[in-house]
Design goal:
Layout: E1 2-3, H1 10-24, E2 36-37, H2 46-59, E3 68-71, H3 73-86, E4 92-95, H4 99-103, E5 112-114, H5 121-131, E6 137-142, H6 146-159, E7 167-172, H7 176-184, E8 190-193, H8 208-218, E9 223-224, E10 237-239, H9 243-258, E11 276-279, H10 280-285, E12 298-300, H11 306-353
Helix pairs in contact: 1-9, 2-3
Length: 354
């Protein structure tokens, strides 16, 4: 498994967990999984690429892989350009690669398969507008790394479809202090969207999840994104794919290939589902009513009602109370029957005495 970014990126951790869970579904097939990391965008360039190619080729020379999994576009692009020098004719399964990135390259070889992500930026903003119909401004926050600039260009192109309803403002490549100042000055007519960023205008390095946490903490307007790993950082939510599910899909495809299936024969979904994820705490803080949340949304951090939290114990207590009431009633009936019997016996004895 070759990841585009670093080992501790939350998305990579979730994909790895999904892979392990997926492989566990086939205990009859022992799968040895190795993980490698390109550490993009912090490291890159021709020298770095040559070093990684040589490292992987030498490391796995005695134990070449039977399947190569790649996480995100950078790892797929790297593998497509260097597969013949590393692991020729080994099938490739791509994970978490956006459909836009796949469209930008030539048709994939027949032994390179996967389930792309159709990142739904416009769908996320449309949902935000349903919750904040008074919003008049969309603020998009990105960073200064190569990855951040590519995201900025992609979002600028898509955001043109919103110009008739929202004024657009891009806060791109700012120093953290300057960015926080802008976000604190936002009014109630604003919506913030961010994919996170890897570096700010001062060159400070971030994990995108932590950048999202910083943005949400400073913004006076609700913040939305596309990554499920951002839920819990202070954003409201967005249309997002589950990286655990991505890992499980990758494990399923890998198991089929290891079992002898041809890559072209695999029946894979066209895209990964992108359901609406929402942080219930942030939704309440932003005034989003419970009946405004779609029934198919994945709601995180929702505090259960008394009945939801203690239903089992309430039912047990109710059953015990009913049983006790039944026993007490039976005892009262028996006591009354005995009293009537004793009274009848006393009357009979008086009659016999007379």
């Amino acid at each position: 498994m070759l990841y585009s970014n670093g080992r501790l990126l939350p998305a990579n951790i979730d994909v790895d967990r999904g892979l392990v869970q997926g492989f566990a579904a086939r205990p009859d097939l022992q799968v040895e999984l190795s993980a490698e990391f390109l550490d993009s965008p912090r490291f890159g360039g021709e020298t770095h690429e040559r070093a990684v190619v040589a490292y992987l080729r030498e490391k796995y020379a005695a134990h070449p892989p039977e399947v190569i999994l790649v996480g995100a576009w950078e790892a797929l692009d790297f593998t497509l350009r260097n597969r013949e020098r590393m692991f020729a004719r080994v099938p490739v399964v791509h994970l978490a690669v956006s459909s836009e990135d796949l469209q930008s390259t030539a048709p994939l070889p027949p032994d390179v398969i996967g389930v792309p992500l159709r990142l739904d930026f416009l769908g996320t903003v449309e949902q935000a507008l349903r919750w904040q119909p008074a919003a008049r401004r969309l603020v998009v926050v990105t960073g200064s790394s190569t990855w951040d600039r590519e995201w900025e260009a992609r979002l600028r192109a898509q955001a043109t479809r919103l110009e008739d309803r929202l004024s657009l403002e891009f806060l791109s490549g700012l120093a953290t202090a300057e960015l926080q100042t802008h976000l604190r000055a936002l009014g109630g007519d604003s919506i913030v969207f961010t994919p996170g960023f890897f570096s700010d205008g001062d060159g400070r390095v971030f994990v995108p999840r932590e950048a999202a946490r910083l943005i949400a903490a400073a913004a006076t307007a609700p913040v939305y994104s596309l990554y499920a790993t951002f839920i819990g950082t202070g954003i409201v939510g967005g249309r997002m794919a589950s990286y655990d599910a991505i890992g499980r899909v990758g494990a399923h495809a890998t198991l089929e290939l290891l079992s002898g299936a041809a890559p072209a024969s695999l029946n894979l979904p066209e895209t990964m589902p992108m359901p609406l994820h929402i942080d219930w705490r942030e939704a309440r803080r932003r005034g989003i009513a419970a009946d405004a949340v779609p029934p198919d949304a994945i709601v995180k951090f929702r505090e259960p009602s008394f009945w939801e939290a203690y239903r089992r114990w309430v039912l047990i207590a109710g059953a015990v109370m009913l049983l006790q009431a039944g026993l007490i009633a039976a005892l009262l009936v028996e006591r009354r029957r005995r009293q009537r019997t004793a009274a009848a016996l006393a009357r009979t004895e008086r009659h016999m005495s007379l």
